[in-house]
Design brief:
The complex is a heterotrimer of chains A (about 70), B (about 350) and C (about 240).
Chain A lengths: L4 E4 L9 H5 L5 E3 L11 E3 L10 H5 L5 E4 L2
Antiparallel strand pairs in A: 1-4, 2-3
Chain B lengths: L1 E5 H12 L3 E4 L6 H13 L3 E4 L3 H13 L4 E5 L1 H16 L4 E7 L15 H5 L10 E3 L4 H18 L2 E7 H5 L1 E5 L3 H8 L5 H6 L18 E2 L8 H16 L5 E4 L6 E6 H16 L4 E6 L1 E3 L3 H8 L3 E6 L5 H9 L5 E5 L8 H13 L1
Parallel strand pairs in B: 2-3, 2-4, 4-5, 5-7, 6-7, 11-12, 11-14, 14-15
Antiparallel strand pairs in B: 1-8, 6-13, 10-12
Helix pairs in contact in B: 1-2, 1-6, 3-4, 6-8, 11-14, 12-13
Chain C lengths: L20 H15 L5 E5 L7 H4 L3 E4 L5 H11 L4 E7 H7 L1 H9 L5 E6 L2 E2 L5 E2 L26 H6 L4 E8 L3 H19 L4 E7 L3 H4 L3 H15 L3 E5 L2
Parallel strand pairs in C: 1-2, 1-3, 3-4, 4-8, 7-8
Antiparallel strand pairs in C: 5-6, 7-9
Helix pairs in contact in C: 1-7, 4-5
Classes of the chains: A alpha+beta (about 70), B alpha/beta (about 350), C alpha/beta (about 240).
Chain lengths: ~70, ~350, ~240
């Protein structure tokens, strides 16, 4: 069990989905609920571990994701 | 130090006396002496001279220098000033100081390269798009080219707004005696009470300029205000500033008290008026002279006061531009006659005298 | 660790979903942090979508008239050579209305850095044809697609790299994480060149405009990979020693 932590800034997310498409491990998905701006923000899939590769951070145009290593 | 200089050279000497940091210019007649002489003098002084690729670059480089708080100047002649108008508006919108010189030539279009006064509306009614105003100085001699350059920089920084020097090809290119006075003496002539120290202190831009955010929060300078009501608020503040600028009003009048006709002009036309006035007085006609030294602010109150008991003749090297402001000022209290000549030609003293006689016989 | 840079203000940006500007804004701020030049930075935002750059970068930033950032940058750098002066421009700004200023700044070898975002259209005004629009590409002013009568895409890197005094010219893309990291390397080099007094550096970045292209954000990335980068070839065009 890795302890990498994804720090989501939910209100910054515009549901573009680039992070989900570029995550090699299928760790990310859209939430069913909305953020303050009416977007289905991105969240971590329950029970899936982040490997810490940072590709989501790199492609996110909205600075809505940070990846913190253990 | 008394010298025999062209107006354009004297202007350069004034800018250097003021402490100019950077000059940007593109060749166009009849202001070329400014650019050429700047290329020599600025290098001698270790300051930045820059020949640009266009007037667009000139005004935007001036903007760049202004944004970092430097004393910057650009000059051109009529068509080149038209190209600069977008940049002038940005300078005003961003509240940045600089000095812009228009050595007017004939227009419209390419016009010709003789001196003219056809850019009055362009300079005085804003100078760019949006609600713009600039203090507009009107030198009428080589001496004033020198002194008003010094004055212009101070006013630009005082109001953080471009200051416009509106002159013409004749003042720019004529040789005349000029006394290159010390800063102290120029300040005595051009300001009511201003010390050299206070003059120099005005150019401290550390409270607003972009110089890298060392030891302070980051800053930005912009003229875009997209949120509701934001631009209205900004323009209201600008309007308050324009109102404050009105205290810089300046003019000169001669032989007004007993005059029946007053000749009104600025720049080179005012000197022809002076000749006409002397000749008229010799032949017993009661004629006075009124010369504007600033076009914005405009001496509306004084002109109206004069017009209550005197007829007005506006003499202008255009088809009637300043004339409109004089009429607005006089506001119908008396007749305003006009002698305009456009296309780079000069008003003639004989014609002025004829007009005066006609006015007096009405 | 992938943590947002300090030189980026912690605010939500105004860009459309999937827009490349947000990525390049972040890369710019990361580089400024890494090089420790925040206190020396003077950035110039363009007229276009990135005009609000100053709401996001936490260093001194100004807004220049459309197309004129290279002229403004020239004056600033000449008067304050110790500062780091960067212009951030779009395709309309840099090579349509501002072609002359860019060309002459390059020709003088001004010691400045230009980040040029090429998204093949005028994004802010609604997606009109730009000088960089791909032949056949539909825009709001070329509803049937860009034809030969509308001209061919201007290749900025090829053009600018032919100028003697230019130091560094590279074209990169944002269509994958690898390409984004390559973009960052090029941008960093372009700024380092300025710090080292090496002269004029320009990085052209192929960027997504999903809104004007009428595509999903991921499809827009694929469009760069499959179409845009075929028209505008990636690579280093000049690296003068």
């Amino acid at each position: 069990m890795s302890s990498n932590r994804i720090n989501f800034k939910e209100d910054f997310c515009k549901s573009c989905g680039l992070c989900i498409k570029h995550c090699p491990f299928g760790v990310l998905e859209f939430s069913t609920s909305f953020n303050a701006f009416g977007n289905h923000y991105v969240k971590q899939v329950d029970g899936k571990d982040c490997k810490g590769c940072g590709r989501c951070y790199i492609v996110c145009p909205d600075c809505a994701i940070e990846v913190l290593h253990d | 130090m008394i010298k025999l200089l062209k107006g354009n050279y004297a202007l350069v000497e004034g800018a250097i006396k003021a402490g100019i940091d950077a000059y940007f210019g593109y060749p166009i007649t009849p202001q070329n002496e400014i650019t050429e002489y700047m290329s020599i003098r600025m290098r001698e002084e270790g300051k930045l001279f820059f020949q640009t690729e266009s007037e667009l670059a000139s005004i935007n480089m001036t903007f760049g220098a202004a944004v970092i708080g430097k004393m910057a100047m650009t000059s051109s002649s009529s068509p080149g000033i038209s190209l600069m108008q977008e940049g002038i508006s940005y300078l005003i919108g961003c509240e940045l100081p600089c000095v812009i010189v228009n050595v007017q030539r004939g227009g419209p279009g390419l016009g010709n390269i003789s001196g003219s006064q056809g850019d009055y509306f362009q300079a005085v009614k804003g100078g760019g798009h949006g609600d713009c105003k600039m203090i507009c100085l009107l030198p009428a001699s080589v001496q004033e080219m020198y002194e008003m350059a010094i004055k212009a920089f101070y006013l630009a920084f005082k109001y953080r707004n471009p200051v416009f020097i509106l002159t013409d090809g004749i003042i720019g290119q004529m040789l005349e005696k000029v006394d290159l006075l010390s800063l102290e003496d120029v300040l005595k002539n051009q300001f009511k009470n201003l010390s050299v120290d206070d003059y120099k202190k005005m150019f401290d831009a550390s409270s607003w300029a972009l110089t890298g955010c060392e030891g302070r929060d980051s800053r930005f300078i912009r003229s875009l205000y997209m949120n509701e009501g934001e631009l209205t608020k900004k323009n209201t503040l600008l309007l308050e500033k324009y109102k404050k600028m009105e205290q810089e009003l300046d003019w000169e009048e001669e032989l007004i008290s007993d005059a029946e006709v007053v000749l009104v002009a600025y720049g080179i036309s005012s000197r022809i008026n002076k000749d006409a006035c002397i000749l008229a007085r010799k032949s017993g006609l009661k004629v006075g002279c009124f010369r504007l030294k600033t076009a914005f602010p405009f001496p509306s109150n004084r002109l109206k006061e004069i017009a209550r008991t005197r007829k007005i003749l506006v003499v202008e090297m255009s088809m009637g531009q300043m004339l409109e402001d004089v009429k607005l000022a006089v506001d119908g209290v008396n007749t305003v006659d006009f002698y305009g000549i456009s296309g780079g030609d000069l008003p003639e003293v004989n014609v002025i005298l004829e007009k005066i006689k006609n006015m007096l016989s009405r | 660790m992938f943590v947002l840079p300090k030189s980026l203000k912690p605010v939500k940006n105004h860009y459309c979903p999937g827009c490349g500007h947000g990525i390049v804004h972040r890369l710019f701020a990361e580089i400024v942090d890494e090089l420790g030049i925040r206190e020396k930075m003077i950035a110039i935002a363009p007229v276009g979508c990135a005009v609000f750059g100053y709401f996001y970068w936490d260093f001194d930033t100004l807004e220049a008239a459309h197309g004129r950032p290279p002229a403004v940058a020239t004056a600033i750098k000449r008067l304050m050579p110790e500062k780091v002066v960067v212009t951030y421009q779009g395709d309309g700004d840099l090579i349509a209305i501002g072609g002359n200023e860019c060309l002459h700044a390059a020709n003088r070898g001004e010691n400045i850095t230009i980040f040029f975002l090429n998204n093949t259209c005028y994004g802010m005004t609604g997606g009109q044809m730009a000088p960089t629009t791909i032949p056949g590409q539909k825009t709001t002013t070329t509803a049937q697609g860009r034809t030969s009568l509308d001209g061919n895409p201007i290749k900025v890197c090829e053009l600018i790299s032919s100028i003697d005094y230019v130091t560094y010219v590279a074209r990169t893309s944002l269509h994958s994480p690898e390409n984004i990291l390559e973009t960052k390397r090029a941008m960093k080099k372009a700024i380092q060149n300025q710090i080292d007094n090496k002269g004029f550096s320009l990085v052209e970045i192929l960027s997504m405009c999903p809104t004007s292209w009428k595509m999903e954000p991921y499809d827009a990335m694929k469009y760069i990979e499959n179409v845009v980068s075929k028209e505008f070839k990636l690579g280093v065009y000049k690296d003068r020693k």
